[in-house]
Automatic annotation (TrEMBL):
Enzyme Commission designation: 3.5.4.25
Gene3D superfamilies registered for this protein in UniProt: GTP cyclohydrolase II
Family: Belongs to the GTP cyclohydrolase II family.
Annotated metabolic or biological route of this protein: Cofactor biosynthesis; riboflavin biosynthesis
Entry protein name: GTP cyclohydrolase II
Keywords of the record: GTP-binding, Hydrolase, Nucleotide-binding, Riboflavin biosynthesis
Length: 313
């Protein structure tokens, strides 16, 4: 067996079963992709900016399916409109897709499909956080990071930071790994332990969970399925960079740091005692690539893992 086939075997299989256009308040439409996989029974998602970023598993032709079937599961080019009859050709926009005659797989050509080989795609791998994204929690920065990722992918350049955006092309892989994989119920217990004095790392350990049991390999399979090869990854987490790379298939060509908004703009972003402790623990105990600003005024500890933030990987 070659090294290549061993690696491929070890990768989870991710299959996109449906995609739909969602108009958003962020500006551009997004294309929400729902994935199944052979590792867990969770519905992981890819929030895709750019109609032309195509899931190979979704677009491949299936035996006996009609053009209507393909449109219903989202395997169409261009835009749907009332009365449209072909998934593979959008007559109004003059777009069409080609397929391999034998296998039925999408023949990705640059007139209809994003070139994930030469382009560097702006990507965020995000783990679910009900409290931070839905219940306005000021214990963590997940909601802020999620919004910021969407804005950065939509824009060509963020004015204040100078960060080059995705100009409407990019992906947020949304993994259902609530509470770094321990689930919401256990995360709520961890919060009570935190109110009793533990930090986010100690709380997981006290509950007999790993500090971070997440496996990002499903995210890797999803990105590869979307035809993406070179990514600019929005993260401060060195584990994500390490886990997401797959030699010959997926490379992180740049890390784009996510500096908390409140650190750069005093009156914006999340300001709470809890988030200061949370970010401090990530820097000091989880090796996150963020440099603590002088304005962070909670008690100091030794911080052996603190790194200056850098965009080079
Ligand atoms: N167990 C536990 N999980 C938490 C806590 N606070 C947030 N989380 C979870 O931590 C995860 C945050 O993950 P991400 O946003 O992907 O970020 P990250 O690993 O911090 O890395 P970045 O890419 O730098 O943001 C989510 O699954 C949250 O639900 C906590 O106090 N305890
Ligand atoms: Zn969170």
């Amino acid at each position: 067996m070659t090294v290549d086939s061993v690696t491929k075997k070890a990768m989870p299989e991710a299959k996109c079963i449906a995609r739909a256009r969602i108009p958003t308040t962020q500006g551009p439409d997004i294309f929400l992709h729902l994935y199944t996989n052979d590792r867990d029974d969770k519905e992981h998602l890819a929030i895709v900016f750019g109609e032309d970023i195509r899931s190979r598993s979704l677009f491949a032709r299936r035996p006996n399916e009609t053009q209507q079937d393909r449109m219903i599961r989202g395997a169409y080019v261009g835009k749907l409109y009332p009365g449209r009859t072909s998934a593979d050709i959008d007559e109004r926009l003059g777009l069409s897709m080609q397929f391999d005659r034998e296998t039925g797989e999408l023949a990705a050509d640059s007139s209809s499909t994003w070139d994930g080989h030469t382009e560097k795609t702006l990507v965020r791998i995000h783990s679910e956080c009900y409290t931070g994204e839905t219940a306005w929690s000021a214990r963590c920065d997940c909601g802020e990071q999620f919004d910021r990722a969407g804005k950065l992918i939509a824009c060509s350049q963020e004015e204040e930071s100078g960060i080059i955006g995705g100009s409407g092309h990019g992906v947020i892989v949304y993994l259902r790994q609530e509470g770094r994989g321990i689930g919401l119920g256990e995360k709520l217990k961890a919060y009570n332990l935190q109110d009793l004095g533990a930090d986010t790392v100690q709380a997981n350990i006290l509950l007999n969970h790993p500090v971070d049991g997440r496996d990002f390999s499903i995210g890797k399979s999803i990105l590869i399925d979307l035809g993406i090869e070179n990514i600019r990854l929005l993260t401060n987490n060195p584990d994500k960079i390490e886990q997401i790379e797959e030699p010959g298939l997926l490379t992180c060509v740049e890390r784009v740091p996510m500096v908390p908004l409140h650190w750069t703009h005093e009156h914006q972003g999340i300001d709470s005692k809890e988030i200061e402790g949370y970010l401090r623990t990530k820097i000091e105990r989880m090796g996150h690539l963020l440099q603590r600003p002088l304005t962070l005024h909670t008690q100091t500890h030794t911080h052996t893992h603190a790194h200056a933030h850098t965009t080079a990987v």
